Amino acid sequence: MRLLTATAVFLLFAPLATLTAQGDPDRAVAGGGNFPAGWHVRTETNRQTGQPAPLENVKFTNMGDGLHTTVGPAGIYWRDRDTISANYHVVAKLSQKNPTHPEAFGIFIGGKSLADSGQSYTYFLVRPIDGMYSVRRRPSYAGRPVAVVEWTASDAVTKADSSGKATNELSIQAQGGKVKFMVNGKEVYTGDAANLDVNGVVGYRVNHNLDVHLGPLGIHKL
């Protein structure tokens, strides 16, 4: 399913776009542009051209018990039905197939207005190439994402193995006014729900030039 027109796609991750402009361009991906039923994809704007990255360079398919994405541009992936609020737990196991590329992927919560200029959400990323994680927000009032937790090394993050692959389970638990972020069952950060985007759509975030298997999103009301 194609959701966005060229005028509806805005910058998702400014530091990544800067890197792209400096010589790490989005790759071309064959067979993209057609997505599983019910799923939406939003790509970021190319800073060199000022145009949204083509959905044709996003190959997003059902695979096994989950989904798989092979991408040029960074983007977010969601279904409208995956909406939750108050106390809940979200978990997904994600496997990167080319961890030699220094980019990150993960899940997001609290998504609102994801298809327009008022988009907002909080996202939780891991970067297996160097064993780091980050928590960031995309507030509706800001022109770019803001870091809640800048890139931080953690032994909870599984790094790429000798074959160049890495699997990490990311989970977020919102309960009692707090939001706990965990990697492979280990807490790496807890913040106040009042300072994060909590109520809304949950989904995946994958940065550019990656090949990632997305395990099913487990969404549990507490």
The whole-number mean of residue pLDDT values reads: 87
User: Rounded to an integer, what's the Rg over CA atoms?
Assistant: 16 Å
User: In total, how many beta strands?
Assistant: 15
Shape: globular
Number of helices: 1
**Structural class, from helix and strand content?**
mainly beta
Strand-residue proportion: over 45%
Q: The biggest beta sheet, please? A: 8 strands, antiparallel
Describe this structure in words.
The chain is mostly beta strands and 222 residues long. It has one helix and 15 strands; from the N terminus they run αβββββββββββββββ. The chain has one helix spanning 14-21, and strands at 39-43, 58-63, 66-71, 75-84, 88-96, 105-112, 120-127, 132-138, 146-153, 166-175, 178-183, 186-192, 200-206, 211-214, 218-221. Strands 2, 3, 5, 10, 11, 12, 14 and 15 form an eight-stranded antiparallel β-sheet that branches. Strands 1-4-13-6-7-8-9 form a seven-stranded antiparallel β-sheet, with no helix packed on it. The protein starts with 13 loop residues before the first helix and ends with a strand.
